[in-house]
Amino acid sequence: MMPLHKTITIADVLDWKEGEYRCVAEVDGFPPKALHHMLFLKGPPKVQLSEQFLFDADSVTLACRVQHRSERVKVHWYHNGHRVDIEPGVHLQQPELDVVGDHQPHYAVRDERMSRWEIVSRLTILRFTDADFGTYNCTARNEHGVVSDQREITLNVVDSLRKIF
């Protein structure tokens, strides 16, 4: 319990201190009154590219989990340092799936919102070929910074996936 007219200062704010804070005033004979305050932290997104790949026939899917504290977060994929651009107007027959490429798309990107502050972006490499081996990078940016994570797809990775399926 704090005395009248006191404030609380939250020092060294870390992730775990984010959330709701309540101030409750209680006086005998009266119902308690409460004020609610939300503490939001500003900062760049957090990115985690899964170490597991989903292999389906000739396609490989990579998943990237992005946690952010901004309404305006952008997620981009790169292969061997080159951005995998999404071309407008090219889609597969699935909702929320944007396809990159020409009439026979080679990449598909699907962003799924898990919560207000979390997105899972999936890059699917359709008709996987030798040219698709290499380094894949998932990059997320907001007004506070840019963060990325990357994984290598090698012949050993694909061969082990083919043995499983």
From TrEMBL:
* UniProt-listed SMART domains: IG, IGc2
A single GO CC term for this protein reads:
cell-cell junction
Question: Mind telling me which InterPro entries this protein's record contains?
Answer: Cell_adhesion_signaling (IPR051275), Ig-like_dom (IPR007110), Ig-like_dom_sf (IPR036179), Ig-like_fold (IPR013783), Ig_sub (IPR003599), Ig_sub2 (IPR003598)
| Coiled-coil ranges per UniProt | none
Example GO molecular function term?
Answer: cell adhesion molecule binding
Organism listed in the record: Globodera pallida
Which keywords, in A-to-Z order, does the entry hold? Disulfide bond, Glycoprotein, Immunoglobulin domain, Membrane
Localization recorded for this chain is: Membrane
Task: Give the top-rank taxon of the lineage listed in the UniProt record for this protein.
Answer: Eukaryota
How does the UniProt record describe the way this protein sits in the membrane?
Answer: Single-pass type I membrane protein
GO biological process: one example: cell-cell adhesion
- Name the chain's protein: Ig-like domain-containing protein
Record-linked Pfam families = Ig_3
**Would the keyword Cell membrane turn up in this protein's UniProt record?**
no
Keyword Glycoprotein annotated: yes
